[in-house]
Amino acid sequence: MVKKIYVKPLLNEEQLMKLEGQLLPKNYFKKVIKNEDVDVYKEDGSILLKLRVNVLPMKNIEKAYNAMIKHARKQTTTRGMVGGPTGEKKLVTNNNKIMSNIIGYFDTLSVRQKWIFKQANMKKPICRETSFTGQLPNKWKEVIPLIKDIDTQYKKLFPKEYKIQHKAAQSTKYVIDNTAFSTITTNLNLQTACHYDKGDFRKGFGNLVVIEKGKYKGAYTGFPKYGIAVDLRNGDFLGMDVHELHGNEPIDKISKNAERLSLVSYLREGIYNKCQGLPLVTDSYFEKARKKAKLFRTRKHPKREYKKTQKNKKVKGKSYKKNNIE
Questions:
Q1: Sign of the CA dihedral 235, 237, 242, 247?
Q2: For 165-213, what is each residue's pLDDT tens digit?
Q3: Which of 77, 164, 235, 246 gets the highest tally of CB atoms within 10 A of its CB?
Q4: Taking the C-alpha atoms of 162, 237, 18 and 228 in order, what is their torsion angle to the nearest 10 degrees?
């Protein structure tokens, strides 16, 4: 039997605006749902969240974790408001370093990628394969079974939204197998600041799963407006309205090396809007651009590139000779 909870707003819009971009303190949420199947409804009757516990196969969770954990540990400063405030600024413009990464497919380029295509004099792609997906295909294959499990729960709990999103996802080549998703965001040991998700398919519904290693407490994912949160754990599936302000409490590690790896699976609105009918741009296209850009730099600044090669590349403990420069 699925428990039903009905919630009313505790904060007004002005109070929510002040919370946006801020990190929630420990024990912020007074109501935390733990280890039970629950549907939570807003005052207008719409769904705020649906939690189902122990519905994802552990075998696929373990395979996915082992395949992507090294990539998930990479740090970035490009995740906008999610990373929390920097200095005295209430709304983030320059992030803290956080372990938040993208796998699957994406519809924007980094500043460096744009620079590489400019140097290579090649056309910039609109949508693309991420580096993890393109450069580590065997590891990517190990992640897909878990994504399919997440897709199954999404279809079961939100059939109307799933049908619309799945059709949209399948209209492009930038889709993860036969799922409703194009993209996965991984967040490792990250306390996300209060934020609204952006860039996802607006007619769909959000979701979150967690892979945990070691022991920890806290890190509850919740909605300040309604004062309610979820203690999401291994094997659980959380469907949630990501367009309501949400964030999580700090992680309280019990084991020294405890890890909380969260996965957000979604369809990029930009991929659906901009890349229907376009061919799949794989990492091989990026590799071609990297090589052409390097050749251009070598010709333009031969001495600088020679010194850089000597410093960074060693062959049996010896620097490359001039005629070994690529």
A1: negative
A2: 999 999 999 999 999 999 999 999 999 999 999 999 999 999 999 999 9
A3: 246
A4: 120
Largest CA distance in the chain: 73
Q: Which two tokens stand for residue 183?
A: 């993209």
Burial class (CB in 10 A: 0-12, 13-18, 19+), 126: middle
> Is 105 within 8 Å of 129 (Cβ atoms)?
yes
Between residues 23 and 316, the one the model is more confident about: 23
Cβ atoms of 220 and 22 closer than 8 Å: no
Give me Rg for the CA atoms of the chain: 22
Mean of all residue pLDDT scores within the chain: 89
Rounded-to-integer distance, Cα 109 and Cα 201, Å: 19
Cα–Cα dist 41/240, whole Å: 11
Output the six-digit token pair for 320.
């490359």
In angstroms, the CA 267 to CA 62 distance is: 24
CB 95 within 8 A of CB 79: yes
Residue 129 carries which side chain, given as an amino acid letter? Answer: E
Q: What is the pLDDT of residues 4-23, one digit of tens each?
A: 999 999 999 999 999 999 99
Strand ranges across the sheet with 228-231: 31-34, 228-231, 221-223, 247-248
pLDDT at 92: 43
Who wins on pLDDT, 315 or 99?
99
SS3 category, 218: strand
Q: Give helix 159-169 / helix 137-157 axis angle, nearest 10°.
A: 140
265: Cβ contacts below 8 Å, ≥ 6 apart: 147, 150, 151, 154, 179, 181, 183, 184, 207, 209
- What average pLDDT does this structure show over 146-174? 98
- How far apart CA 189 and CA 251 sit, in angstroms, is 7
